[in-house]
Amino acid sequence: MFQSLFVQWSILQNDSSKQEPWYLLQRFTPEEWNSSNFASQKDLQWFRDSKYGMFIHFALSTYTGKDLGWELCYTRKAPDFGHGPIPDSVWTKYPEKFSLEKFNAKAWVGFAKKAGFKYIVAIAKHLDGFHLWNTKYSDFNIMHTPFGRDYLKELADACHAAGMKFGIYYCQRDFYQPDYAPVDTSMIEQISDPPYYRAKPGIEKILPGPTHQKYIDYQFNVVRELCSNYGKIDIFWFDACWWGACSRRICGNPKSSPE
Q: Are 188 and 252 in contact (CB under 8 A)?
């Protein structure tokens, strides 16, 4: 089964080579761009040549037989729309069942090597907000489950021991974390087409919600944890389109290009 996916491009402020809609283009000043630690050409070439990698898509949605958090969370925060099928009071209790009796990181990595995979990317957090590692920034994590161990660390250690390249998938959306508010809902009307919102009449600039800076600070801390505590990270896979107000920036009116 195939479905359409959005591809987001990070580009320089004045780059006119991309013709995608504004909400799929995140623009950076030259100063911001030059301060980033981009992958080397050697590493990029390794990724292009590897081709065959294993994604371990495993999270709370395992209990529903659905595809990750989108088919789990009843509450979907703007600019995302609609509702999931499972009440929040139900799915947020799933960690109480999280026991993983048969988990064996060394065996998983061994299977991947035998199958010819060149790297493994494991989910650390999907949009359900559940942390599959021992984070100090939220109690909604795997250490507070019957399993009670750092799943991500065991998998990372097994990859490093076996010489398997290791990557982390991290979803920037978060329908659990209370401060997540990438757009101020008092400034928008939700619509059915991307980017799923537009400015209310008279609104010239759409701001993040009043709590969203706290979420950005939290996100900085957890990403730093992931990049600091799990050995060499060969791939860091961010998931979530940039809808214009998901960072510290203020975006322009969605009817036109952002400032």
A: no
Q: Is 9 strand, coil or helix?
A: strand
Q: Which residues pair with 10 in a beta bridge?
A: 26
Domain that residue 100 falls in: 43-252
- Which of 174, 173, 203 lies closest to 188 in space, CA to CA? 203
Confidence of residue 12 (pLDDT cuts 50, 70, 90): very high
pLDDT in tens, 23-56: 888 888 999 999 988 888 999 999 999 999 999 9
Q: Which residues pair with 235 in a beta bridge?
A: 167
Q: Is 202 part of a structural domain of the chain?
A: yes
Average pLDDT value over all residues in the chain:
87
Pairing mode, if any, of strands 53-56 and 119-125? parallel
Those residues whose C-beta lies under 8 Å from the C-beta of residue 235, and which sit 6 or more positions away, are 47, 119, 121, 165, 166, 167, 168
pTM: 0.88
13 found inside a domain: no
The two tokens of residue 115 are 């199958």
Domain count, the chain: 1
CATH classification of the domain holding 68: 3.20.20.80
